[in-house]
Amino acid sequence: MGKMTVQQRHLISLLSVILVVLTLSSCAGVRLISDYDEATDKSLTAIQQKTDDFVAALIKKASTADAAFDKHKDFYDDIDQQLRRLEFRVNSIPKNDKTISLVKKIRLVILGDGKCSDEGNSLRDLHCMAASKEKGPSSVALEINRRNINQTISAALSLEVAKKQGLEQNK
C-alpha cells in the first residue's frame, strides 16, 4: 500500500466524522431512569397526607390512653396495604430502581420490618415499644419521627417531580 491520495484522506475523514456522529446520536436516546408516573406521585402524596394526619392526631393525644397502640392498629394495616400497592406499581416500571429504593425506605420509616421492636426506628416501633404501648409515644418523639417520614417521602416525590420536569423539557 502506497501513499493515499487527498481524495482518499478526505473520504476517510468524512467516514470517521459520520461514524462519530452516528455513535453520539445513538447514545442520546439512552434512558437511565423511568419516566414520570402520575399514579406513583398520587400514591406518595396520599401516603404522606395520611401519615402526617395520623401523627398530628397522635401528638394531640400523646401520653394518654387514647394514643395507645392497640387503638390505632387499623392505621398501620391501612398504610401497609397502601405501601404494598405502591411497591407493586413501582416494581412494575422498568428502570425505576431509585424510586423502588425510596419506597422501601418509606416502608422502613413508617412500618419498620413489620414487627414491633424496641430497637426499631419506625413510627410503628415507636408506637408499640413497651414504654409507649399503653399511652403512646411522647409528642417530641412523634415530631422527630414525623420529620423523618416527611423527608423520606419528600425525596421520593422530588424524584417524581424531576422526572416530570425532564419529560416536559424533552417534548
Helix content: 55-70%
The biggest sheet amounts to:
none
What multimeric state do the chains show?
Answer: single chain
Overall radius of gyration: 26 Å
Offer a quick outline of the entry:
The chain has helices spanning 6-28, 38-61, 73-91, 97-111, 123-128, 139-169. By secondary structure, it is mostly helical.
Task: Give a written overview of the molecule.
- The chain is mainly alpha-helical and 171 residues long.
- It is 69% helix and 0% strand.
- The chain is built from six helices and no strands.
- The chain has helices at 6-28, 38-61, 73-91, 97-111, 123-128, 139-169.
- α2 runs antiparallel to α3 (73-91), α2 (38-61) runs antiparallel to α6 (139-169) and α4 (97-111) runs antiparallel to α6 (139-169).
- It is rod-shaped and about 95 Å long.
- The mean pLDDT is 86.
